[in-house]
């Protein structure tokens, strides 16, 4: 359960923004979307490997 204490006199939009940020950090939406469709473990590994290669490529470009 996410608890966001609202301070006295605090703007409700600011409290809502903090709630959204905390909710996003939990990863609940990401997990729901990934569970919506079954993905084979081999496909998961392949995608994870491609992401790692892409990030490594970006880091190499950044160093140069």
Number of domains: 1
**Structure annotation, total helices:** 3
Indicate the mean pLDDT: 93
Order of helices and strands: HHH
Shape: flat
> What percentage of the residues does DSSP assign to strands (E)?
under 5%
How many strand segments?
A: 0
Question: Main beta sheet: strand number and arrangement?
Answer: none
Radius of gyration: 19 Å
Low-confidence stretches: none
What structural class is derived from the secondary structure elements? mainly alpha
Verbal overview:
By secondary structure, the chain is mainly α. The protein has one domain (12-63). Helix content is 73%, strand content 0%. It contains three helices and no strands. The chain has helices at 12-26, 28-36, 41-63. The termini are far apart.
Which short descriptors sum up this protein?
mainly alpha; single chain; 0% strand; 64 residues; 3 helices; flat
Helices, strands, pairings?
Elements: H1 12-26, H2 28-36, H3 41-63
Please summarize what this structure is.
The protein is mainly alpha-helical and 64 residues long.
